Amino acid sequence: MKRISRNWLYTFIAITLISIVLAGCASEPDEAGGTENDGKQHGGDLVIATVSDAISLDPAGANDVPSFDIQFNIFEKLIKHDENMGLEPSLATSWEAVDDTTWEFKLQEGVTFHDGTGFNAEVVKANIERIIDEDVSAPTAYLLDMIDEVIVIDDYTVQIKTAYPFSGLPAHLAHSAGAMISLEQIEADYAAMEEGAEPGSVINERPIGTGYFKFDEWSPGQYIRLVKNEDYWDGTALLDSVTFKVVPEDLTRIAELNTGDSHVTNQLSPSDVGQIESTEGLAMLQQGSVSLDYLGFNTEKEPFNDERVRQALTMAIDKEVIVKGITDGYALPAVGPIAPNVFGYDENLEGIAFNVEEAKDLLAEAGYEDGFSTSIWTNETRERMDIATNVQSQLSEIGVDVDIEVFEWGAYLEQIGEGEHDMFILGWSNGTADADNGLYPLFHSDNMGPPGNRTFLDNEELDSILEEARQTTDESERIELYKQAQELLVELAPMNYLMHKDYLSGLREEVKGLSMLPTKFLLLKDVYIEG
Questions:
Q1: Cα separation, 29 vs 37, whole angstroms
Q2: What is the pTM of this model?
Q3: What Å distances lie between residue 180 and 33, 373, 436, CA to CA?
């Protein structure tokens, strides 16, 4: 099988977000209304037009970016990421490894939840134990399932013991899975479960965190509204409220920017960038990412249970055509599953080269000389539908006849989580910027379905490598293990690793202070609307 070098790919665009730092003390509003001495407009409702609604507002009930986008503003974690995916204190003031399997965290004092209850070590213990509780069945439990015990040392000190040495624990706690929920609400949710309710039913109805915004209203399929937390412990937000408005159609989101019905469109299709840039009063926000967009194969279904078929289909698709034609170059062709700015990325990895004739030969060798009929599933995002159409056209060149089926976001995740699909198009945002989170949930056999392994790959050798990498504290050894894993994943080809794309958003120019993390989360605390 021919391969193509990846060395050139290492010229990944550096992340260049600018942090916005608020001035220290603010005076009372002046008579003109709303403007304080810091020169920034205070108040107002920011409207963000989004493609899809959230699946759940319970951190233990979701594993998708639209849900995490909302949760990011309601809940906080012990640790947070900065704009370069470095780790910073949040609800924890500091942390250290006491020994190979014990981490100690010192906590912020005086922090209260939106319901007025206090944040302390008991709250941390309850939240971590809940996320790994098998009865709760959190799809992100894999991020913290190495935790054996949470020990309360005092009100503001907690120790976390792991089953094996795991140096990535702080990064995992910075993921949305580590979000802190009110202890009273956790207890109420467990009480509802005892009465037969689904896990998260209480939390999802009115989520209670410590964040700078708090939940106000959810009209499913239409919008979710958050309002400013006036009692936020680390300086209040400038906006009065933020509304996440569900607008699935790209052109409608652009129209709403023009009319002012929305202030931000997230996401922005690359094909609409020209229109944004040529329209007075509109601007674009661009952010490099830690993401992967891919075409997945259901390895449990024929003919995709034959790796030669998966390799052939990968070989028959020219990624350059997709990147240039559909993303207008706002992406890098991927060779493997890890983005260049993620720990463990292998700059020397060689992938399957585009070669139509060799793809035909490989299909014939697998017994499909005349091709076969299959389907691609996708959700209603225009970019993914365009990718599906492009793949459909390219695979017809090797005799593979493809139907395209489009689903609403929630139904889509449910269906591909159950393994009903043949092929599907999806993305993965690596919320820890570590190879463990880019490989373990997507490919380990323990994580089939909603946790991430929607290709249903089951390979003992790969499982063993990923488990060993998790338990190795030596950084050079981890890198070598992830190198082996990525090489094996090229051969196994459970998915066609399409691209690492930039995140694009459109906004009105009166929106100031908006930035985005490489995980796609919008940073809204310091945003204001000018004028």
A1: 8
A2: 0.82
A3: 36, 47, 23
Q: How many CA atoms lie within 13 A of 171 on its CB side?
A: 18
Are residues 381 and 504 in contact, defined by beta-carbon separation less than 8 angstroms? no
C-alpha 320/C-alpha 231 separation (Å) is 50
Residues 6+ apart with CB under 8 A from 382: 250, 269, 271
The packing angle between helices 475-492 and 307-315, to 10°, is 90
- Taking the CA atoms of 189, 193, 197 and 200 in sequence, report the sign of the dihedral they define: positive
Instruction: Determine if the peptide bond prior to 139 is cis (ω within 30°).
Output: no
CA dihedral 294, 295, 299, 301 (to 10 degrees): 150
Residue 273 is which amino acid?
A: V
Q: Count CB-CB contacts under 10 A for residue 516.
A: 21
pLDDT tens digit sequence for 333-388: 999 999 998 999 999 999 999 999 999 999 999 999 999 999 999 998 889 999 99
Question: How many Å apart are CA 151 and CA 259, to the nearest integer?
Answer: 54
Instruction: Give the percent of the chain with pLDDT over 70.
Output: 93
Stronger pLDDT, 39 or 311, i.e. the higher one? 311
Pick left, alpha or beta for residue 34 (phi over 0 → left; psi -120 to 50 → alpha; otherwise beta): left
Q: What is the CA radius of gyration of the chain?
A: 23
**Which pLDDT belongs to residue 167?**
87
